[in-house]
Specification:
Blueprint lengths: L2 H11 L9 E7 L6 H14 L13 E6 L2 E7 L6 E9 L4 E2 L3 E2 L3 E7 L6 E7 L3 H10 L6
Antiparallel strand pairs: 1-2, 2-3, 3-4, 5-7, 6-7, 7-8
Length: 145
């Protein structure tokens, strides 16, 4: 994450921080994967509907992830400007565990979940955020099993 994006994200997080809470890691991530098969099907369907005039492909919405000493913050990123659009979710960090890191050619991911919940949040990191991914992975314990 470049300095301007980080500065704007920290400015958005600052009013939400509790006393003594520090931002440890910031990263640009994706939370909702769009598969290659779904992308191709969507492009073909949109081309057929438009008579071949255009093909539309779904795109992931980039998110800003900030991990503090107490919580994970997820903000929607504005694709045009560097500033965050709005807070999507805040997750308390206590008790969170993660899955093994899945390495891919263009990205990597792991699932963050709470032991008392059956749902998790898949966090997808682009290639340029490997250092941030490793910092977040090191801070969250690996899930048993």
């Amino acid at each position: 994450m470049n300095a301007k994006r980080r500065r704007l994200l920290l400015a958005a997080i600052e009013p939400l921080l509790e006393t003594g809470e520090q931002v440890e890691v910031t990263a640009i991530v994706n939370l909702n994967p769009v598969s290659v098969r779904r992308t191709a099907a969507f492009a073909v369907a949109s081309a057929l509907v438009s008579g071949g005039a255009m093909a539309v492909i779904p795109a992931r919405v980039p998110m800003y992830l900030a991990m503090t000493s107490h919580r994970l913050f997820v903000f929607e990123a504005d694709p045009v400007f560097a500033r965050p659009k709005g807070l999507v979710t805040t997750v308390p960090r206590a008790g969170l565990v993660r899955s093994e890191i899945k390495e891919r050619v263009l990205n990597s991911s792991f699932v963050v979940s709470s032991p008392d919940s059956d749902q998790g949040m898949q966090i997808i990191f682009p290639l340029m955020c490997r250092r941030e991914r490793n910092a977040i992975a090191a801070a969250l314990p690996l899930a048993a099993g």
